[in-house]
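[job 0417] fold request received: Biotin/lipoyl-binding protein
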Amino acid sequence: MKNFKFKIYDNNYNVKIVSHEDNQINLEVNGTAYTVEMKSEVKKPKTPTLVRSAAKTPAAPKVNPGSANTKVVAPIPGVVVSVDVKIGDEVKVDDRLLVLDAMKMENHITAEKAGTVSAIHVTAGQQVLQSDVLIELS
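[job 0417] inference complete; emitting C-alpha cells
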C-alpha cells in the first residue's frame, strides 16, 4: 500500500503498510512483519454546537381586575399599524383595540377587561417598546 521512511535518533526505518482493515494494520518495519491495533479516537465536532435557551413568550397585557384604570401595555416591541378605538368608546372583552406590527407580523391587541377607553397613548406609525402603555381603560 504505502511506504514511509523514518529517522529516529539516527536510526533509519523503512515502514510498509501491507493492509488496513477496521482498526487492524499489518505493516513491515525493515522487513519484519507487525500487526498493530489502532486505538479509536473520540472525534470532536469541528463546529460548535448551538445551544439555545427556551424561547420567552411575550408577556400578555397586564390587567388588574380590582383597579379603576386598566393599562394595556405592548407585549413586544413594534410599530402601531392602526388604533381601532377612540376615547370614550365602550369595549368588551376580546374587542380589538389596536394592531401592532412586530417582526413582520401583525398582532391584534385586544381588551382583557370590559370598560371605557379613557386614554390613548399611541398613534398609527409610532414605534413602541415592550411594556410601553398603549391604552388605558376605566
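[job 0417] notes: The domain at 70-137 is CATH 2.40.50.100 (OB fold (Dihydrolipoamide Acetyltransferase, E2P)). The chain has a mean pLDDT of 84.
[job 0417] exit 0
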